[in-house]
Specification:
The protein is built from four helices and five strands. By secondary structure, the chain is of the alpha/beta class. It has a single domain, classed as 3-Layer(aba) Sandwich (Glutaredoxin), CATH 3.40.30.
Amino acid sequence: MSRRLLLVGLLFAGIAFAQDFGTYKAKEIGVHTPRADYEKDASKLRAAIEKLGIQYPIVVDNEQKIFRDYLCDLWPSQFVIDRNGIVRFSHGGGGRYDDMEKLIQQLLRTE
């Protein structure tokens, strides 16, 4: 059975996870949820993604539907979702990257 893990993370800190876990059957996506109208400019978002060298897909959540569906209350928010769709980690705000990385490594070994 293949090991799969979905990583839904913040746009900027997620770069390290994509590089570290790229050889596993894990998928990382970013969700851009604008806080203000000027952050909805798709051309500026594309330019930022290119400038940062982000290689994983980014979902644009202009209506904050994903943000609300996952009960987010802080920017940025990070989630680790296992292959069965169960949220195994969630955190609002910065930090806790070591905790998230340890869980990801554990899930990749056991899934």
